[in-house]
Automatic annotation (TrEMBL):
This is Ribosomal RNA small subunit methyltransferase H. Keywords: Cytoplasm, Methyltransferase, rRNA processing, S-adenosyl-L-methionine, Transferase. The keyword Transferase applies. Its EC number is 2.1.1.199. Belongs to the methyltransferase superfamily. RsmH family. GO terms for cellular component: cytoplasm. InterPro entries: RsmH, SAM-dep_MeTrfase_MraW_recog, SAM-dependent_MTases_sf. It comes from Borreliella finlandensis. It is found in: Cytoplasm. One of its GO terms (molecular function) is rRNA (cytosine-N4-)-methyltransferase activity. It catalyses: cytidine(1402) in 16S rRNA + S-adenosyl-L-methionine = N(4)-methylcytidine(1402) in 16S rRNA + S-adenosyl-L-homocysteine + H(+). Pfam families: Methyltransf_5. Specifically methylates the N4 position of cytidine in position 1402 (C1402) of 16S rRNA. The keyword Methyltransferase applies.
């Protein structure tokens, strides 16, 4: 197995500052709700020996990579192969967490190494399921069976794609001729109907985002988890959530805004953003926003 991770830990300096500000620094529980390859976890465990990690990861393929990547810390880690919402709803630990990290971005491994069709840069089967056994529908089934109206609504609602109507129409017309089976095939369909003058990112970016969110039920899992994340924080515990698009960021912002000021404190009024230097080193970090609350 390759020892090198595909992913870079986004906003790591800001996260480390949060840990350094914890009032107690011995025998603390750090839960990584979205372990991925373990890049945040590795950097944090190397720096803070007073933390024990509970790592949650739904995708068994990437979890095995994380276990290998973090093997030097195995005595300080407990792993759970589960969705984070299931874990927190059925919270299995007998202690509450001192630090909960949630990175809602999809790991670069899924784009570059999983072969599940998350990216249009390689020609792969359209799947996008983080866990084939628990996700009911694949991206391929969606683009080949949903009605024009349902496709249009899905693409617009989950990505704010302004050209969702012409994209859904093009998908319907194409599949009259043949089934849409690969990422490159879908990307080509979208690119042909996208206004050239409006292209700032790849025309397929938002549609692929919408499909991935729908397939893995990402927004519902986030909404379901938020009250359980704060409930399972210890006194002075910190919940740090990194979002990557406006829809999920709005969900987190609104939830934090509705919490009692007597029970929870926002660490900063505005989200913490990556620095220019971080964006220069790691371009995908440019859309990251970190929102943080502390349990009083």
């Amino acid at each position: 197995m390759n020892d090198n991770a595909f992913h870079f830990p986004v906003l790591l300096d800001a996260i480390c500052k949060l840990i350094e500000d914890l009032p107690v620094k011995s025998d603390l529980i750090y839960i990584d709700s979205t372990l991925g390859e373990g890049v945040h976890a590795k950097a944090i465990l190397e720096k803070y020996d007073f933390l024990s990690l509970v790592g949650i990861e739904r995708d068994p393929q990437i979890l095995e990579r994380a276990k290998h990547f973090l093997s030097i810390f195995e005595e300080r880690i407990t792993y759970f192969n589960d969705w984070f919402d299931n874990f927190f709803v059925n919270y299995p630990l007998n202690v509450k967490a001192n630090f909960i990290l949630v990175d809602l971005g999809i790991s670069m491994f899924h784009y570059k190494g999983s072969k599940k069709g998350f990216s249009f840069l390689e020609d792969e089967p359209l799947d996008m399921r983080l866990c084939s056994s628990s996700c009911k529908i694949s991206a391929s089934e969606i683009v080949n069976t949903f009605s024009k109206y349902d496709l249009e609504a899905l693409i617009y609602d989950l990505s704010n794609e302004h050209y969702s109507r012409r994209i859904s129409k093009a998908i319907i017309e194409y599949r009259k001729i043949k089934k849409i089976e690969t990422t490159k095939e879908l990307q080509s369909i979208i690119s042909k109907v996208y206004p050239f003058s409006k292209v700032k990112i790849n025309p397929a970016t938002k549609t692929f985002q919408a499909l991935r969110i729908y397939v893995n039920d990402e927004l519902a899992r986030l909404k379901r988890s938020l009250p359980f994340w704060v409930e399972n924080l210890a006194k002075d515990g910190i919940l740090a959530i990194i979002t990557f698009h406006s829809i999920e960021d709005r969900i987190v912002k609104d939830f934090f805004g509705g919490l009692s000021c007597d029970l929870y404190a926002k660490i900063s009024k505005k989200p913490i953003m990556p620095s220019f230097d971080e964006i220069k080193k790691n371009k995908p970090s440019r859309s990251a926003k970190l929102r943080v609350i502390k349990k009083l």
